[in-house]
Structures are given as C-alpha cells and as structure tokens.
C-alpha cells in the first residue's frame, strides 16, 4: 500500500476515535445531568398524570382502527413509550399490577402492598382519588391507583363475554400468561409508580 494510503487510513482511524470520544463525552454529560435532576412529589405527580393522559390518547387513537389495534399498541408501543418518557425526564416510571398482562408490569413488593391497600379502600367505599408519597434513601416515590373507568377498557380487560373473539385470540398469542381479565368498571387495575431523586 502506498505511503499516502497508509496516512489516509491512519487519519481516518484517528478521526473515528476522536468522534467516539466526543460522542462518549456527550452521552456521559447527558447521563450525569439526568442523575442530578431532582423532583418534588408534586412535580412527579404532574409527570405521571401527563404520562397516563398521553398513553390513554395513544390507545384511544388506535381504537379507531379496531380493538385488536389497541392490543398491538399495548404490546408493541406502550412499553417503549413508557421507557422513552422515563428517560426523557430522568425518572423511574411503571404501571404496576397484581393481575398483570405484560410480565414487565408485575408489581414489586412495595407496589403490591399499595395496590392491595387501594383495593381495600375501594371495598370500604373510600375515594380512590388519592396519592401516596413515600420518601426513602434520598428518593421520592409517588403511587396512585389506576382505576378502570372507561367501558372501552372492558374490550380487553373485561369478562369473556365482553372481550371480542379476535381480541381474545390476539391476547392469547401475545400474552399466554395474561392475568388482566375479568375486571369490572371501577376496579383498581393497578398503580402508577413514579420514583426519582428527591429535591429535599
């Protein structure tokens, strides 16, 4: 190989190495900045409510193409949307459930405790328009019940008679361990769980 070709190759490799270093530094700066972001309980609740509204909007929009389209959105889009939203704001964000459809939404022990409390409060006739705020280890953790409040939700989460056969088949294919059926309007479906470093 001619000497000028070797120089060109070396220069190209050097430029690639420099680009990798710059990109790595930019990534690290973004990561470090996110780690420094701190939130109050109120601001986490605002972010959580905004997330739920946007996700519900995605689902309602997909229903215009039929209930099976909504199942596909839940299966393919909802998790990615949740992760992207959490990453954007530097928070931990989950829709946790005891009777989960996607195993990734299975409640941990803390979330399970509060979901059970929310269910108990419903049985006692207490309002579910409530928010639980926990503070520990420098974090603030906000949990609020997710209540099945729209009859449309029964097309995926209701009884066998309420779920259309095409949807039932798609759910069986996508979620063979599905536990998120036989809900009624007003039931506690799970909990919104949002956690981040506390601002105090």
What's a quick, concise take on this entry?
The protein is an alpha+beta fold and 200 residues long.
Keyword list:
200 residues, alpha+beta, 4-stranded antiparallel β-sheet, 55% helix, flat
What does this structure look like?
With 200 residues, this protein is α+β, with helices and mostly antiparallel strands. A hairpin with a 2-residue loop joins strand 2 and strand 3. A four-stranded antiparallel sheet has the order 1-4-3-2, sandwiched between helices. It has two domains: 1-36; 40-197, no CATH class. The protein has helices spanning 3-36, 41-63, 67-89, 109-123, 154-157, 165-174, and strands at 92-96, 132-136, 139-147, 188-197.
- Give the proportion of residues in helices: 40-55%
Helix and strand composition category: alpha+beta
Evaluate the radius of gyration.
23 Å
How does the overall form come out from the CA principal axes?
A: flat
End-to-end gap: 63 Å
Secondary-structure element string:
HHHEHEEHHE
- For the record, the count of structural domains works out to 2
Largest sheet: 4 strands, antiparallel
| Total helical segments | 6
Mean pLDDT: 87
Tell me the strand percentage band: 5-15%
If strands are numbered along the chain, what order do they take across the biggest sheet? 1-4-3-2
> Can you count the beta strands?
4
Q: List low-confidence stretches.
A: none
């Amino acid at each position: 190989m001619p000497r000028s070709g070797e120089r060109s190759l070396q220069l190209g490799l050097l430029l690639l190495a420099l680009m990798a270093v710059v990109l790595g530094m930019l990534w690290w700066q973004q990561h470090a900045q996110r780690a420094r972001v701190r939130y109050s309980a109120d601001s986490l609740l605002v972010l959580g409510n905004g997330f739920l509204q946007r996700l519900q909007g995605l689902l309602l929009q997909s229903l215009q193409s039929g209930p099976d389209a909504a199942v596909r959105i839940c299966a393919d889009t909802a998790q990615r949307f949740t992760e992207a939203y959490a990453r954007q704001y530097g928070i931990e964000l989950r829709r946790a459930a005891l009777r989960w459809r996607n195993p990734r939404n299975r409640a941990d022990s803390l979330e399970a405790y509060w979901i059970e409390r929310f269910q108990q409060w419903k049985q006692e006739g207490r309002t579910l328009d409530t928010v639980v705020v926990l503070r520990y280890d420098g974090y603030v953790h906000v949990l609020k019940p997710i209540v099945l409040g729209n009859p449309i939700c029964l097309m995926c989460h209701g009884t066998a008679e309420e779920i259309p056969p095409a949807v039932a088949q798609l759910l069986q294919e996508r979620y063979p361990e599905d536990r998120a059926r036989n809900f009624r309007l007003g039931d506690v479906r799970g909990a919104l769980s949002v956690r981040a470093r506390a601002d105090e």
